[in-house]
Design goal:
Layout lengths: L15 H17 L3 E2 L5 E3 H7 L5 H5 L3 E3 L5 E4 L4 H10 L8 E10 L11 E10 L4 H18 L5 E7 L3 H15 L8 H9 L10 H6 L12 H17 L4 E2 L11 E9 L7 E7 L3 H4 L7 E7 H12 L9 E5 L5 H14 L5 E3 L6 H10 L4 E5 L1 H5 L2 E6 L4 E6 H10 L2
Parallel strand pairs: 1-5, 7-8, 12-13, 12-14
Antiparallel strand pairs: 2-4, 3-4, 5-6, 6-11, 7-9, 9-10, 10-11, 14-15, 15-16
Helix pairs in contact: 1-5, 1-11, 5-9
The structure holds histidyl-adenosine monophosphate (HAM).
Histidyl-adenosine monophosphate binds next to strand 6, strand 10, strand 11 and helix 11.
Length: 419
């Protein structure tokens, strides 16, 4: 049999309900904050990511799925949404002299080493805001995430790390100072960091290698290169987070892996998922719109790793698989499936949001009730010939086995009380 491509996610029916619930919760929340949805294409010109995310980043250097199309143009499957989002809004005239708050969802592709929580096709819910220069919008982005963790019941298992990178000038100056400090130590750095010293030295700060971390003791600190204005922006963010009661840790080594960030960067991290503990990352990227050919526009955003949040919800709640149906319709005697489908339609109207399933494939009533139980239904509706003729249903509350025959309207009322 032909196998799936390594690292591409197969999401099975038992996994999708919780996974979808995470995505839906994020979408509902963002909609409540007046963010509007954009749909971004899966394929873009490779140059968009090279220029947007940065030539020297891991993503562009070694993780993109790139190909030539029939015209010989180099295209890449999107490894992230921000660069694409900027392109779409700019190309459609939605950035010039306006503010925008948008979100997107869907798969991203990175050729990383697959493991639990790290896939080559993974899913994000991303949010981006344009035209807001102040730290209040940075705080709002963080607050949306905080509210999502509350809603999903995982708030006690995540922490927020924040940092400021200052403006592009500060980053450049800091980069030079760091290279100067590390060059004499180059031979003792881990292999990845040796390479990064030439290409992307700030990423060395993120190294997981203990030796490298020890060598970084005494290295210049980014905070010393950040000017007054950037510090005021960061202080403003901290003050707003304090006012909102959102706890955070200032991690002066947090730099993030994409090149477009300026000023605020943040990550939400959990200890529940081992090495793949970052469930959301984001920050401000005031220079990106211009770098991609638009007019200078302040911007910020984040992306949630839907798959990782889903794993976190699973770890925290050790959730039983979701019920296959809330209400299960069984047929007794000569009642056929079409009558069950009519009853199902009434139930769906009366119980919006509940899952109603009609038994298919015949068999004894006992077997049908077993199926209802196995699917963790709360109620079985039993359709019998005599009852249907009298406009009645028999309903069985499966938790205690209580069974009653009622007129359809009364049965619907009774079923409602079970939820
Ligand atoms: P990122 O940090 O590369 O940022 O990705 C955001 C989140 O996507 C990560 O925190 C993680 O939860 C998830 N993620 C990344 N790679 C994988 C993977 N291989 N498997 C599973 N999950 C993964 C961005 O993508 C930026 N575009 C975020 C942003 C938006 N910044 C500003 N606006």
């Amino acid at each position: 049999m032909v196998q799936g491509v390594r690292g591409m996610r197969d999401l099975l029916p038992v996994q999708t309900p919780r996974w979808r619930a995470v995505e839906t919760a994020a979408i509902n929340l963002l909609s409540g904050y007046a963010y509007q949805e954009v749909q971004l294409p899966l394929l873009e010109y490779t140059a968009l990511f090279a220029r947007g995310v940065g030539e020297a980043t891991d993503i562009v250097e070694k993780e993109m799925y790139s190909m030539s199309d029939r015209d010989g143009d180099s295209l890449s499957l999107r490894p992230e949404g921000t660069a694409s989002c900027v392109r779409v809004l700019n190309e459609n005239g939605l950035l010039y002299n306006q503010t925008q708050k948008v979100f997107y969802t869907g798969p991203m592709f990175r050729y990383e080493k697959p493991q639990r929580g790290r896939y080559r096709q993974f899913y994000q819910v991303g949010a981006e805001v344009f035209g807001f220069a102040g730290p209040d919008v940075d705080a709002e982005l963080v607050a949306v995430c905080a509210e999502l963790w509350q809603y999903l019941g995982v708030a006690d298992h995540v922490r927020l790390e924040i940092n400021t990178l200052g403006d592009q000038g500060a980053r450049r100056a800091y980069r030079e100072a760091l290279v100067e400090f590390l060059t004499p130590l180059a031979q003792r750095l881990d292999e990845d960091s040796q390479r990064r010293l030439q290409t992307n030295p700030l990423r060395i700060l993120d190294s997981k290698d203990e030796n490298t971390q020890a060598l970084l003791v005494g290295a210049p600190e980014l905070a010393d290169f950040v000017d007054e204005q950037a510090r005021a922006h960061f202080d403003g963010l901290c003050a707003t987070l304090d006012a909102l009661g959102i706890e955070y840790v200032h991690n002066p080594r947090l730099v993030r892996g994409l090149d477009y960030y300026t000023h605020t960067v943040f990550e939400w991290i959990t200890d529940q998922l081992g090495a793949q503990g970052t469930i959301c990352g984001g920050g401000r990227y005031d220079g990106l719109v211009e770098r991609l050919g638009g007019k200078a526009t302040p911007a910020a955003g984040f992306a949630i790793g839907t798959d990782r949040v889903d794993l976190l919800v699973e770890a925290v709640h050790q959730a039983a698989p979701e019920a296959a149906a809330d209400v299960y319709i069984c047929m007794a005697g000569a009642v056929d499936t079409s009558q069950a489908l009519v009853a199902a339609a009434r139930l769906r109207t009366a119980l919006p949001g509940r899952k109603v399933r009609s038994h298919m494939g015949g068999g004894a009533l006992k077997k049908q009730l077993k199926r209802a139980d196995a699917g963790q239904a709360r109620v079985a509706v039993i359709l019998g010939e005599t009852e249907l003729a009298a406009g009645e249903w028999t309903i069985k509350h499966l938790a205690d086995g209580e069974q009653q025959t009622l007129a359809v309207a009364a049965a619907l009322e009774q079923i409602r009380t079970y939820f």
